[in-house]
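Predict the 3D structure for this chain.
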Amino acid sequence: MAIIGLIVNPVAGLGGRAGLKGSDGIEIQQQALALGARPQAGERAERALRELLPLADTLTVMTYPGEMGEDAARAVGFTPQVIGHIEPGHTTAADTRRAAREMRDAGVELLMFAGGDGTARDVYAAIDETLPVVGIPAGVKIHSAVYAVSPEAAGRLARDYLLGRTRDVILAEVMDIDEDAFRQGRVSARLYGYLRTPFGLRLLQGMKAASGVSEAAAQEAIAEEVVDRLKPGVLYVVGPGTTTRAIFQQLGLPKTLLGVDVMKDKQLVAQDVNARQLEALVADAPQVFIIVTPIGGQGFLFGRGNQQISPPVLRRVGKQGLIVVATRTKIHGLGGRPLLVDSGDPQVDALFEGYIQVITGWREAIVYPIKGAG
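Done. Predicted structure below.
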C-alpha cells in the first residue's frame, strides 16, 4: 500500500473574499468570518482527493484529525489513518509543522497540503527538502511555485507520481510576503527556501513574476486604450495590479494597488471592496464589466489575490463582460500557456473557457486562450 500524507490548513483563504489580502493571525480570521467568509480549504482538498479515488484500493491517506484533513478524506470516501491531535476550531501553524514532521517520520511517500504561502512556509520549516510534496491551492496570495494550478491538478500530479508516470522532482520556491505591508499596498516578498515537488507540465503554477520598471510605458498605453473604451452608465469592477492602476492614474482616481475598486462614469464608486459589498453593487447595476490583468509568470485572471471577485459576480458578468489587459512582456512570459480561472466554482470557471481579446497597448490587442484551472 502506498501512503500519502494530507494536511489541510482550515483557515487558509478566509481573508480572500473578505478583501483582507491574507488570512494570517487570529484577528484577521475573526474579521473575515464576521464579514461572511467561510472556510474553503477543506472543499479544495476534497477536489484534489477525488483525483486519487482510482487508487483507493492501493492507497492509504494519513492525516490529522477533523478539519486538518480527516473530514476531507472521509467526505470523498477514503478511510484515513488519523494521527496526532488538535484543538478543533483553534488550529495553528505549529499544528501544521508538527503534522508534517510526524507524517514524514511515519514514512509517507508524498505529502499533500492545502493552504497558501504561509502553509508552504510551515511545511518547509518542518521537513525542508526531505520529502516530495504537492500543494493544493487554497490561500489568498499564492506566490510559491510548490502549488498546482488547481485542486484537480494537484490530485492528478500526485496520482501520476504515485503511479510512476512522473518521477521528475524539482526544487520549487517557497515564497511569502509581509501581509501587514501588503494591506498597505506594498509587496515585500521573500524567498524562504525550496520544497521538492513532482514536476508536471501545466500542472504546477510556477512562481509569481514581478513587473519591471520598463513596463510603465506599456501600461500607460494600455490605460489610454481602456479609458478610450469606457462607456457611460456602466459599472466597472477593476482588479489589483500595476497595469490596472495605470487606468485609474489616467483618470486621476486613487487605486487600491492590491485590492478591488469600482468606478462608473469615470468616477470612483467604491474602494477596496470585499465580496459581499461587490455582489451588492453588481446586483443593482444594469451593465457591469470586469477589468483584470493576469498574474505575471502564472497567468491567473481570477482566484489568486482577487477572490473578492466571487463566483456570483463572475456568473453575473460573464465572459462577455470581461476586459483583460496585459503588456506584451507579461503575455510572452507565459510561454504559450493559457490564462487561468480558479474561482472556486468549476462550473463558473468553465463559462470563461475559449479565447478572449487581451488589450496590450494603444489600439493594440491579441486573441489569447483562457481555461479553467481544473
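DSSP finds 14 helices and 16 strands in the chain.
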